[in-house]
Fold each of these.
Amino acid sequence: MKIGLDIMGGDYAPKAIVLGAIAAHEALSAGERLVLIGDTSLIKPVLAEQGFNPDHFEYVHTEEAIGMGEHPTKAIVQKPNSSIAVGFQLLKEGKIDSFASAGNSGAMLVGAVFSVKTIPGIIRPCLSTLVPKLKGGAGLLLDVGANADCKPDTLLQFGILGNLYAENILQIANPRVALMNIGEEEEKGNMVAMATFPLMRDTRFFNFVGNVEGRDLFNDKADVIVCDGFTGNIVLKMAESFYILTLKKGFKDEFFDRFNYEKYGGSPILGVNAPVIIGHGISSPEAVKNMVLQSKDMIETQLVEKIKKAFK
Amino acid sequence: MKIGLDIMGGDYAPKAIVLGAIAAHEALSAGERLVLIGDTSLIKPVLAEQGFNPDHFEYVHTEEAIGMGEHPTKAIVQKPNSSIAVGFQLLKEGKIDSFASAGNSGAMLVGAVFSVKTIPGIIRPCLSTLVPKLKGGAGLLLDVGANADCKPDTLLQFGILGNLYAENILQIANPRVALMNIGEEEEKGNMVAMATFPLMRDTRFFNFVGNVEGRDLFNDKADVIVCDGFTGNIVLKMAESFYILTLKKGFKDEFFDRFNYEKYGGSPILGVNAPVIIGHGISSPEAVKNMVLQSKDMIETQLVEKIKKAFK
C-alpha cells in the first residue's frame, strides 16, 4: 500500500506535513508506505532534525507548488510539475493508492476530477466532512462545498456515497441518512429538498430517516446528513467559528474538543476513482497524521471499489 | 398608539404573555396602549393575581385559538374568530397599529399577507431575526424561513428591507449589508448568489460590503446579512442549538447570553403594510415585553412608511 502525501500544501508546510508523516509512520505497518511528494531539499532537513531514518519514506521530488490563492483549474493546467499535479499523475498511474493534501482545495477537487476522474454513474463527486456527535463518535455531512447547486438526483447520490463512507470508514452499521431541511415534514423545504425527499424515501440504497434541521447537526437523529454544497459550506464554516469561539472564551469540554478538525484528518472527496483527501489549510502534524490514517482506511476497506459497485 | 398582542399564542400562553404585557406596560408612556387579544376570562385572573389594574389595557375577546401544529392557511381561513385572525382583522382596520404573537409562525405569515397585504413593489415579504455581534449589539439576518426559494431580485429587496430595519430600529448609521455566500470573491456561490452579487454591488439602496461566509455571522463584517429562507432557517436553528449547548454545558459568557432570544423580542415580518412580529414559541414574559417594545419602535419610527417610500 502506498499512501501519497503532498508535502507542499497547507499553511505550515512543509514542516508540519513532514512531522505529521513521521507521526503517521509510527502507526503504519511495514507494508504501508508513505510517498512524500514535494521538494525533497525541504523534507530532508526536517527528517534529519528529528533523527528520523529517511528510508522509511519514499520520495517524489517536485519543484513547483500551487499556492492557496491560485485559481484551481489554471493552476492545475499551468503547473503540471507542482506537487498536487504530480500527486494526481502518480495516483492515475497507480503508483500511489491514495493522495492527500492540505493545500489548495479547489485544485485538489479539479485535479481529482481531471486525473482519476469521476466514477461512471456518478453525476458529481462531492466533499464530505466529519462532524462530532454529542453522544460520542462522528457523523458525516456532505456536500460541504464542491457543488453549490445540486439537483435532487445528485443529492440522492450523495446519500449513497455518505452511507458507504459511514458504513466502511466510520463503521456504523446501517447508517441513518437524513436530508438537511427547514422542517421535519415531507412537504417542507426549498424546491430541491422537496423533490429530493421522495427519491430518498423510496431508495433501496440506504436507510433514509427523513428531514433533519439546523439544530440536529450534532445530535443523534442521523449519522449522515445530505445537503447541497452551498448549505453545507455555510454550516461547516459556522460550526468552525463556534468552535474557535469556545476556544477563545476558554471553554473546555470533551464535546467541543472533538470539533478540532485535527482529530479527523481531512475531508474525503467521494465519487472519484481513487481515495483523495483534502486537509484543512491550517493542518497541524496531528491532523496530517490522521489524514494519512484516514487514507489508509479508505484504501484498506476498498471504499472506492464499493462505491463503483453501488453505481454499476 | 395601539399595540396589538395575541394572548393565546406561545407555549406558555396565556400566562407568560399577560405577564409580559404587564412588564411592558411599565416601560410604555400614557399614549402607548396595549390591546390584548384573546380569551378575556383567562386574562383577568392573571391580572388580579398580579394586583394589576385591568384598565391599563384594552381587550378584544376571542374564544378560538390557532394551535402550534395547525396548517397555517387552513387555520387562518377556518378560524376567523381565532386570536390571530382577529388580530389581523383589527390591524387591517387600523384599530391597532401593530400586531405581535408568539403563536403559530406560519399562520402569522399567512395572516399578514392575507390581511394587511404585501407592500406594492415588494415581491415577497420576509422574516428577519436579530443576531448578537461579538463586539456588542446586534445585526440582522434575513430571510430566516418565509421563502425557501428566492430569486436574485427578491434577495436584493431583502437587502433594502434589512437596511431600513437596521437604520431605523437598530439605529445603525449606513448599515453594511452583505450576502451570505461560500466565499468572499464575487464569482463564488450558487447560481442565485452569483446572480445576486452584481445587483447588490450596483444598488443605490444600501451599502453593499460583499459576500460573507458562515463564519462571519457574529463578527463585525456586516450589520445585515441577506440569504434565502432555506439557508437562513438552517443557520438560525444551528445558532440556537449552539446557544442551548453552551447553556447545557454550563458555560457562562456575556456574548452567549446575548443569544438569548428573550432580549430581542421577536422576528419582524418585513415587507407587509403594517408592523407584524412573530415571537419565539417558548416566549417568556421578558421576551413578550421586548416584543411589545419592538412593536412600539416599529410604529414610532414609521418603518413601514419608510419601506413603502423606498419601493415606490
Amino acid sequence: MISITIIGSGNVAQHLINAISKCDTLELVQVFARNKDSVAHLAAQEKIISDASQFKDADLYIISVADDAIPSVAAMLPFQNKLVAHTSGSVAMADLSNENRKAVFYPLQTLSKNKDINFKEVPLCLEAENESDLELLKKVANAISDKVFEINSEQRKSLHVSAVFVSNFVNHLYHIGNEICNEHNVPFDILKPLIIETAHKIETLSPQDAQTGPAKRKDTTTINKHLALLSDENQKEIYKLLTKSIIDNGKKL
Amino acid sequence: MISITIIGSGNVAQHLINAISKCDTLELVQVFARNKDSVAHLAAQEKIISDASQFKDADLYIISVADDAIPSVAAMLPFQNKLVAHTSGSVAMADLSNENRKAVFYPLQTLSKNKDINFKEVPLCLEAENESDLELLKKVANAISDKVFEINSEQRKSLHVSAVFVSNFVNHLYHIGNEICNEHNVPFDILKPLIIETAHKIETLSPQDAQTGPAKRKDTTTINKHLALLSDENQKEIYKLLTKSIIDNGKKL
C-alpha cells in the first residue's frame, strides 16, 4: 500500500483523488485544499485539511496547483526529505523545494471537472531525482494508468508545447468553426462527426498523410472564396496563416 | 430501387460507390472514370466507362470530381433533364449545367482512400431545385447514412469554411505537434489520447466551455517559455496568433 497526499483542489487534483480512491493498492491519506468545500464530494471530511500543520506522513505528496504557485506551495511544506511531485507540464522539477526529494507526475490529458475520463487511458509522464523514487512513482502510475512514460524536464517542456498545439489551439479552432456556423444559421452538430474522424485518423495515419483540403491541394479558387466569406478579421488572419503554413509544408517534401 | 451513376474516381467517389453497392435499395448503374483502373476494385468491369457516349439511363447522376472540374464535367454530359448532383462543399448548385436538373449531395466528412469509414455516420448535406428531386435525394441519403440534412448553397459554403477550420487546420496543428515531438525526441504517441479526448469533449461541452491552457488562463509566464522553446519562426507565429485569439475571445465574454 502506497500512501499519497494530494495538495490542491483543481481539475487535475480532483481527477487524481478519484483515481487514487478507486485503487486498492493506493491509500489517499489527505487532501490539502484552501477551500475545503471544493473537494468535499471526493474525500471523507477528516481527510481534508487546509492547515499546513495538520499534514500526516505519506509516501508521496502530489502538488497539483496553478503553475506559478508550485514553488511557493512547495516551500511552505512543513516537512523535510519526503517525496514531493508536481503535476505540471511546463514547470521544471528543479523548481520544487530543496527541502524534499523532487519528482514530477504529469498527466498529459485535458481534464475538466465536469467531464469524466477513463484514467487508465491518461498518459502519465514521470521524472524523479533518484532511481528508488522513480520506482515508487512508477508503481503509483501503473496502478491508475496503462500509459506510463519516463520523461525528463526538457522533453516534458516540448511535450507541453505540443499539447498546446494539438489540444488548446485545436479546441479554439473548434470554437471558430462553431462561431461561423452560428453566424450562418447552420447547426454545429453537423461538423461533429468530422471533428471526431479527423482526430481518429491520426491513430493510423501520420498527420502529414492525413492532410486534406484546399490548402493541401493549393486550390486558390476555394481559398479565395473562403476568405471572401469570412467577415471577422481575426478569423481571416488565422485562415491565411494556417493555409500558408500547409502550403509551405507541402513544398518541404 | 433507385438507380445511380457515379462520375469520378477520387476519394469521395470511391466511398460513395462502396456505400451504394452495399445498399439493397440502391442500384449502381455505372461508374464514369477517365482511368478505369482506379475503380476496377470497386465495380464490375462492364459497369465502368470512360466514354461519355456510353452513359445508360439512371435516376441520379452524382458528379464527384475536383471542384474546378465540376462545371466542365457537367457540361459534357450528353443527356438532358436528368437529375445531376455534385458532391462539393464549396461549389454552388447553380454551377451545374442548365441542361439537367441540379442538385447537391455533399458528404461532410474527411474521406481518405486508405481509411475505411462507417458511412452511416457521415453527415450528408442535400440541396435540389425542386421538391420531388429533393425527396429522391433524401431516399438515397437515408439509405446510406443516418445523418441527413437539407442545406442550401449559402449555408453549405459556411459549413465548408468551418470544416476547413475544424478538420484541415486542426490536422495541420497535429502535424506541428508531431514536428515538435520529433525535434525533441519524444514519441508523438503520448499525445494521441489527448487529441482523441479533445475531440470527444465537444460532444458534450461547447468549445467555449471546453477551452483550457495557458492562453485561456492568460498565463504569460508559460506562454513566454513556450515561445522561447519554439525554434521555427512559422510555429512561433501560429502560436502567437492563436494565443492572442484565445485571449481576445475571453475578453468578449
